[in-house]
Design brief:
Layout: H1 2-15, E1 37-40, E2 43-46, E3 49-50, H2 53-60, E4 67-73, H3 78-93, E5 99-105, H4 112-123, E6 129-131, H5 139-145, E7 156-161, E8 164-169, H6 174-185
Parallel strand pairs: 3-6, 4-5, 5-6
Antiparallel strand pairs: 1-2, 4-7, 7-8
Amino acid sequence: MKKIILSTFILTALYSCKKESQKTEDTPATDSLAVTQNTTASGATYVPKELSPENIGQHLAKNNDTLYVTNFFATWCGPCMKEIPSFKNKMQELKDKPVKFTFVNLDDKNDWDTAVKDFVVENNLGRNVILLDGQKLDQNFFSNNFKQWDGGSIPFTFMRKGDKTDEYLGMMTEEVLNSKIDAFLK
């Protein structure tokens, strides 16, 4: 019963964000997490893989000299889609630096082969997107991994380099993103 109530709360909170979409320019990028590559007649397409909450937690806990920027988003979330171009610009700018960008998709599992796939292909982000089934999340996931975020809204960005972390709830402007990343790279 507790799981059903928590799942309903998370889905309700996530669906409170208006559905919108915005086209962005293609920018290639890489990430430390391997993703399966499928080849189709139209060219190479990268298909994101699903990770469990435990594996996402392990990714968030990486403690080394690389800056990990992890953004939790959904394709139906207008603010999420509006901030993606800023992340892509920063990814391109820092492509040769020890910075890894990961986008954790929280769309409903039924949308993974449609809206999420279209978003990934359109933005050339397949190597950077991880699918996370929100039905598998419980309150422990949030309390074990974050100080601020309780899963109630998105977008949410988590940054970690070594022992230093930063959490940002809401849409991040390009200026804020640049400022936070620059602070980690000093």
